[in-house]
Each structure stands twice: as structure tokens, then as C-alpha cells.
Amino acid sequence: MKHAVVVGLALAVGPGGEVAAQANLNGAGATFPNPIYQKWFDSYAKKTGVKINYQSIGSGGGIRQFTQGTVDFGATDGPMTDEQIAAVKGNVAHLPTVLGAVVLTYNLPALGATKLKLDGTAIADIFLGKITKWNDQRIAALNPGVKLPATDLLVVHRSDGSGTTYVFVDYLAKVSPEWRTKVGVSTAVKWPTGLGGKGNEGVTQQIKQLEGTIGYVELVYAEANKLRYASVKNAAGKLVDPTLASVTAAASSAKLPKTTDFRVSITNAPGENSYPIASFTWLLVKVDNPDAGKAKQIRDFLVWMVDAEAQKIADDLGYAPLPADVASLVKDRLKVLKAAGKAV
Amino acid sequence: MNRLGWRRWKSRVMVGLMMVAVVVAVAPLVMILATLVARGAGSLNLAFFTQIPVPAGETGGGVAHAIVGTLLIVGTAALLGLPIGIGAGIYCAEYPTARLAVVARFVADVMNGTPSIVVGVFAWTLIVDVQKHFSGLAGSAALAMLMVPMVLRTTEEMVRLVPHSLREAALALGYPRWRTSLSVVVRTCLPGIVTGSLLAIARIAGETAPLLFTALGSQFMSRDLDQPMAALPLTVFTYATGPYDDWHRIAWATALVLILVVLVLSLLARLATRQRFGSRG
Amino acid sequence: MPGEVPLRGRNLGDLAFKTLLTIAAIAIPALLAFLVWELYLGSKLAIERYGLGFISGTNWDPVAEEFGALPLIFGTLTSAAIALVIAVPLSLGVAIYLTEFAPKWIRQPIAFVIELLAAIPSVVYGLWGIFVLIPLLRTAVFPFLRDTLGFLPLFQGPIYGNSMLAAGIILAIMVMPYIMSVSREVLLAVPTSQREAALGLGATRWEAAWTAVVPYARSGILGAIILGLGRALGETMAVTMLIGNRHEIAASLFAPGYTMAAVIANEFTEAATDIHFSALTYVAFTLFFVTVLVNAAARLLIWRVSRGRPSGGQGV
């Protein structure tokens, strides 16, 4: 047995002892932007030689590891609370990187190619367990001329704590007072009804396999898997499809002040073209990093990231890029980053 | 039917039932391997074993970094965990009534039921939080802790099965106790200990949860145990939870590779055992 | 040669040997004590807030910060019990067949193939479970059970696929190789004289196996089952993916449930508040105590079984 282990170790370490290519920076956190981060860090390494290792361990994990100082930067889909910011003595900057959207996906073959239309109240009632049949009046009223079956409506939600859940319930709390008081907003909530699936796959598989189900997943995920998803009525009363454009529109309508800390919710955003269930995703960096070398590497990367070149890559991968005004605000904010008290 | 006839008939029925059990037991493996091969084999090529991953949207690349990472992390875990597990197992078998043996045995059973993510968090507080950075070594420590109780239990059971007469014969020949233990008792039941160790290594090689907060993972080739490191199960996890079909394909292929790595390790170990200990089994 | 070893050196050798073994044996409770201490520190906040009511509470609401673990404890014990009910007869059947009946050439390959099952990572079981097992259960097995055994409350209610029973079945597949391979090693070690004696007394081959060989290996087999039970109680990823993750105690095995390990896997990485994090650690702490209790019960059982019967089995 030991032989095998030793052989394995010898094989792994290999002859010659060449210098292992190590990461210069380590980061961890949110899973939803993981693909675009991997792509960015790869492109950036090819361009500058600076290697950034990013691992998707979850938003909560990102905040926790950032707070404990075990990573050089964190990433999250839900902003840190005031309490959490106090725990790091305010030494954190939230920098938006791209935008995400949550879509309602369903399995209803009777509908054929017709797209389901929903509004905030109907979505809240579905997830509160108050709508239990597909031909319920509240759904039928939004879908005139569509023949809805009289079958059971089955809710599927995420069982794991998730930034996707956070964005979704944040929206529900804004459109439904009942949701706000009964359930509330968090990365994990006490679901009034339905079945829990682990991760986007868990939810997707459950919906694919079981007729009559409805659930929520990330837009990138729905697009990549060609899932059917619903149009949603926004705050302006318009039915909007989730697209990169309608998500960016939601972010543009947020009208951030110059002093913003970027911890803003853009769910149920105003504006005719805004998709209502959208959100920023953030990188967490130290405002004042005692390690001057790392401070500079992080700052340089962030400058590149909000530039047109990197944001264009986001677009290619199905992520909504930051609106130009937000990008320039972020760029402006990078000037306050310090290294051991001095400017980077 | 007379009594003897009934007994023979019953014997045959039981044997038949046991053969059914074999089929039922082997079926899931066949189905799982078939799924893995069907979904993963198509992506296996030389590049898959020799290159590191490319980001989403590009094709090609491989999981060489994760293969190396898994070998290093699991190898180190085995070096840490096997001596403790086997040593403690022999202790429990050699001094079965000692208070320490009773405690160690019981504690091992309790540890066996601990979810691996909890052990991961423990390793995080012990190593990562103290060092302030993630490392492959922290992953090894978590995995070692998971394998110790498994190795202990199997070692103890195997050592205890060695007939007393064998031990007494060796002692009567003037062998000191430690030599009796090592070259007679342990040697006799070595295949059993190897099986137990193998099962333990096989189990930890596939663990994802304890590595999440310890080895963390990396998209680069890293051979430094003091740095974040990739591992096959982490790669399966990351790619399986990503949005792209191409990533899912890599996840299945990586899972296939993971099983192949374990298979090769098991075969190597088995061959080594067979050479020295001949005809057993 | 043994005779040439001077007595003093011999004692030194024994002393060194025992010391090394003792260090290894002490390391195990020491590690556990450390782990329990860390768990206690992590769950202190939740312990202070909820006390023992945590164990009997059925509510799990991260927003209102109310946490109760009873449905989780119920799910953990139920899924493990289902797993053992399925896996124990199967793996014992295989182990007995392979040591006593199978043609020689087939023994090693089959044992190896089944041991391979142990090498499959939990997350792969989970993926396979979602893609292959669940559709099979939902369309064929569960409807069949409902039609034939539907008079029992256990097999009533709507069929979603993801359920307590699905989790129990995947757990059975996962613990089977452990029980099988350890039982097999134990049975292999039973002296041939046991078999020969029974056969010589006129026993059939099955009777020889069941009344002379199996009882001889009894405590080892029970050890194997405990090993399997331990794994079933703590198994995380695959269960999480198949059990449906609902905080509810349902009579039907078709209904979704939850386990302690699954809730940790689901919420640990995203727990936003300190009390949520602490409650999850408290769940881990509780899981510990459940394993201690179950193990203590299992130990008591072994003790009674191995004392309760004469060591030669029931006789032929």
C-alpha cells in the first residue's frame, strides 16, 4: 500500500523539480459569476502574467473568508450587512463587476411555444403557496387567450443558501407585503411551500423531470441550458423578457449617487425596459491593504476589469456588463484604495 | 418431502437468493460506470491529462492540475493517517481491555459518523485560520482525520481474527512481543489491513466537502502543499455546478478520471500485496 | 534469530512498540476532544439562545432566526435505517456467497468490483441519482410500491421522486461495499475447521455457512454493519441531492425529508448571520450526539449478541 502512495507521490512531484506556477492572488466566493471570473483571470494572466486563483465556495463563504483574512479578495452576490462591515472595521469596498438576473423557469408542455407571463403578485402568491393550480384566475388573467391546464402547480426552490435566492426573495419582499412580513429576505429562507433542489442543477433537474413545476434559476444558467422562462411585469407595468439589455437597463435606472458604496438593490427597478429581478455581483477588497504589492496587483486588475475590453468578454459569456456610468463610478472609486495608509 | 430433501432444497434456494444479491449489488456499479463512460469518455484525450483548464467558452484544456493535486493531497493524508489508524488499531487489538482501547474504539465509531464538512471546518479553524491562507496541507489534514477511524476499525477487526494459537506459538519460540505482533500477527492479516486502508483511501480521494474550506482549489498547477491546490472532486463539483454543457461534460470526464485513479491505485496495491503474500483470497 | 535477542533489548523493543501504539491510540480521542471543543465554541451562540429546545423544535427559519432540528434528526435516523434494511441482507448475502459458495475464479473479481463502489465519490452518486435513479424510482419502483403496499401509510401520497426513500436507497448502495468487504474479510478468516466440522456432521452447505461460519464471525460482521451505519448517518452530498430537502416529518417515505448532514452542506457556505452559522454548527454538534447514542446502542447490541449465545452458534 505504502508503495503505491510513494509511487504516486513521486509521480506527482515529478523529476527535475521545476518551479511550480503559483497564484499571485487568491480569492473566493460567489458561484454565479465564477465562469466570467475564471475567464477574466485567464485573460488577465495571459496579458500581464499576474495569476489570480478564484474558487467558487459561495457568497457567504466569500464574506466569511474575506473577514477572516484568509483570501486576498472575496466575492458575493448579496452585499455585506452593516454588522459584517463593522466586523472588518469598515476596511472593505464593494465593487460591482457584472450583473445577474433570476428567471422563472417552468415545465408545462400544454403551453407549447407560448411564453408564460407573470407579475410580482402572482409570483409571490405562487411561492407563498396560495396558487396551487395552473389555471388559477390570477395566472389566467395575465395570460389571456392561453389555455392553462387544471393541474397541480408544484414549486421548486433552492435548498442551499444562495445569492440567487437572495436576489429572488429580495424582489418578492418588494412586490409583496405578505412575503416581507411572513418570510423575509436572506440567502436561505423558510419556504412556505415546495421542494428544495441543491444548486441550479437540482432545481433544473426537478423541473425537467416533473410536469407542472415552476422554479427560479440564474439567467446565464437558463440560457446555457435552453430552459423556458417567463416574461415578468416590471415596476412600470411593462412585460419584460430577461435579456442582457433589460438587465443592464435595470442597473442604469438605479441612478447611483457619487458617494455610493455600491451596496444597492436593483430589484423591481423603475424604467420601461428594466427586468425586475436583477442584481449586481460584487468583489470585496480591502480599502487599505497592508500588503503594498498585493494592493497594487488588485488595483491594476480592477482598473482593467471595468474597462471596455473586459466588460465585452462578459457580454460574450452571457453576463450583462455594467452600464457605462456605473463602470466610470467604479473606476473613480478605485482611486481611494490604499496600501498601508499610502496611495497605491 | 422428507427432512433431508427439505434441507437440501432450502440450501439451494438460499444459494440462489445470494446469487440474486450479487447481481443486485453489482448492478449499480455497472449503471454508474456506464453513465460515466457515456457522458465522460468522449472528452478523454491526451490533453485532458496533461493540460490545465481553459476558461468557459474555449474548448480543450484538461485537469492535470487536479490529478497532481489529488495525488499530493491524498498521498500526504495517507502518510499522516495510516500510521495513526493502523497503530491505534493494533493497540486496540493487542490490549483490548485497556481503558484507552475502549475509548479509542468508541471515539472512532463516533468520528465515522461525523459529516466530512464538519471535519473540513475543523481543519479550517486549526490550520487555515491560523496560517491565514488556504493550503493543500490543510486538506490533507482533514482527509487524514477522516480516514483514521476507518483504518482503526478494520485493522483491529483483522488483527483480532488471527488465532491465538499462532501468537502463542511465536511467543513460545522466544519472539519478543513486538516481533510477534509485527511479523506474525500483523503479517498474517496484512491483506485485511490493506483492504481496509484501500477502502479508506478510496473514500477520502472522492471527498469534496472537507476540501472546500481547506485545499480550496486552484485553476493553476500547484505542487506546493502550503498553497491552495486543485483536487479532482473539487473540479467535479465546480464544473458540475456551472451553467455550461461543456463544463458538465468536463465534470463527468473528471469523475471518470477520479474513479480510474482510484482503480489504478487499488490495482497497484493489490499486485504488491499478492507478490509478497501469495495465494490468499 | 529470536534466541539471540538479549532480554534487555527485547524489553526495550516491547516498550518502544507499546509507546508508539499508545501514542497513535491517544491521538484519536485527543483529536475528537479538540473537534468537540471547536464545535462547542462554534455553536455556543445557538446553544445559549435555544438550549435543548433546539432538539425538539420543528421550525427552521433563518430570517426569523428560529432554528429547530427535530425533522433533521428524524430524517437522519430514518434514511440510515432504510439504508441498513436494504444493505445488510444484500451485503451479507454477497459476502457469504463469495466466501462459501462461489466458484474460486469469480470470487476476487466480484469482490473487487463491489469494492469499487466504495471508490465512487459521493457527488457522483448524487449526479447519477438525479439522472438515472430518480427517474427509475419515480416511473417504475414507487408506483409499484404504492400499488402493492399502498395500504401502509409508508407508501402513500404523491410521488415526486426526490424523497426519503430515494435517499435511503442511494445510502444503501453506498454503505453496501463497506459492509460487504469487511464481512467478507471476516468470513475468510474463519478457520476451515469450522466448516469441515459442520459438513462432517451432515450439514448442507448452507447450514454449514449459516450455523457454523457466520456465528463465528458474528462480532466482526456487526462491526462491519456499524461501519456502514456510521457512514449512512454522516453521508452528505448524495443525500442532499436526492432527499428533497424539506423541513418536515412525514409519515410517507415518498415525501421529501431532510438530514442533519444535508442542511449543513446546503446552508453552511452561505450562512449570512452569525446565529445561522452557529445554529448549523449546533446541528453538527447534535449529529455528534446522535452518533454517540446510536453507537452506544449498537455496542450494547453487539455485547448482548456476543454474550447471549453460545459461541458455536445454534448447532446443526
Describe this structure in words.
The complex is a heterotrimer of chains A (344), B (281) and C (316). Chain A is of the alpha/beta class. Chain A has helices spanning 2-13, 34-48, 59-68, 82-87, 120-127, 137-140, 163-175, 177-182, 199-209, 219-224, 244-252, 292-305, 308-316, 324-333, and strands spanning 25-29, 52-56, 73-76, 93-106, 117-118, 154-158, 195-197, 213-218, 231-233, 239-240, 278-285, 288-289, 338-339, 342-343. Chain A folds into 2 domains: 10-99 and 256-266 and 275-343, Periplasmic binding protein-like II (D-Maltodextrin-Binding Protein, domain 2, 3-Layer(aba) Sandwich), CATH 3.40.190; 102-251, D-Maltodextrin-Binding Protein, domain 2. Chain A is built from 14 helices and 14 strands. The longest helix of chain A is centred in the first third of the chain and has 15 residues, at 34-48. Chain B is built from 12 helices and no strands. Chain B has helices at residues 3-40, 46-50, 64-94, 99-112, 116-131, 136-161, 164-172, 177-188, 190-205, 209-212, 232-240, 245-277. The model of chain B is unreliable at 275-281 (pLDDT under 50). Chain C is mainly α and 316 residues long. Chain C is built from 12 helices and 2 strands. In chain C, strand 1 (60-61) and strand 2 form a beta hairpin. In chain C, helix 3 packs antiparallel against helix 9 and helix 11 (260-267) packs antiparallel against helix 12 (274-308). In chain C, 53% of the residues are buried. The chains are: A alpha/beta (344), B mainly alpha (281), C mainly alpha (316). Chains in contact: A-B, A-C, B-C. At the A-C interface, helix 3, strand 7 and helix 9 of A face strand 1, helix 5 and helix 11 of C.
